[in-house]
Amino acid sequence: MTDIPRWFTATKDGHSHWYVDRFRQLAADGADLGGEARLVGAVAAPGSRILDAGCGPGRVGALLHERGHTVVGVDADPVLIAAAEEDHPGPRWVVGDLNGLDLDEELFDLAVVAGNVMVFVAPGSEQSVLESLRRHVRPGGRIILGFATDRELSLDAFDAAVSAAGLVLEQRFATWDLVPYSSAADFAVTFLRVG
């Protein structure tokens, strides 16, 4: 197992800047970038504390903040955090690795892990990442994750890490707009419960 997230080892030089520019352009073009935030907002109580884990340049956390939630966004990439701070003031944006995350924060009501974050963490660290998230979410709270299932992380391996991390799998969908999951789906949105 390596401690270096795949985000840094499996992407080309300049990828982080390209990613920031891509989402800035999509926003300028009027693209709908709020699907994950709409789903999270629908299940989170008003004024919830939300951890945007692997927040990238902040698009999900920013929308949740605009809707009245207290948001802390964490990403291992300082380029993405700098973009979040520039484009979306309001939430707290933190450079940090989800593997072994230790925020000095009160527990969150919910964590959202969007944008294929789980396929970009360090190989073999999935259980540790889930344990870190569990430690930051209050008992009874949720962790909602979405990622492409045609990458290096299979759903079977993910589900094994979920179980080993002491989390309960509640529901699974094929999209952020709740299309039912089937084995033909190439994406999974999974709701986990913290015991």
Provide structural commentary.
This protein has 195 residues and is an alpha/beta fold. It has a single domain, classed as Rossmann fold (3-Layer(aba) Sandwich), CATH 3.40.50.150. 34% of the residues lie in helices and 25% in strands. The protein contains seven helices and seven strands; from the N terminus they run αααβαβαββαβαββ. A seven-stranded mixed sheet has the order 3-2-1-4-5-7-6, with helices on both faces. Helix 6 links the parallel strand 4 and strand 5. The radius of gyration is 15 Å and the shape is globular. The protein starts with 5 loop residues before the first helix and ends with a strand.
Summarize the structure.
This protein is an alpha/beta fold and 195 residues long. It has helices at residues 6-9, 15-28, 35-43, 59-66, 78-87, 126-136, 155-164, and strands at 49-53, 70-75, 92-95, 108-113, 137-148, 167-173, 187-194.
Q: CATH fold name, please?
A: Rossmann fold
By DSSP, the count of extended strands is 7
Find the structural class using helix and strand composition: alpha/beta
What series of H and E elements makes up the topology?
Answer: HHHEHEHEEHEHEE
Helix count, per DSSP? Answer: 7
Strand order within the widest sheet?
Answer: 3-2-1-4-5-7-6
> From the alpha-carbon coordinates, what is the Rg to the nearest angstrom?
15 Å
Give a topology summary.
Layout lengths: L5 H4 L5 H14 L6 H9 L5 E5 L5 H8 L3 E6 L2 H10 L4 E4 L12 E6 L12 H11 E12 L6 H10 L2 E7 L13 E8 L1
Parallel strand pairs: 1-2, 1-4, 2-3, 4-5
Antiparallel strand pairs: 5-7, 6-7
Helix pairs in contact: 3-4, 6-7
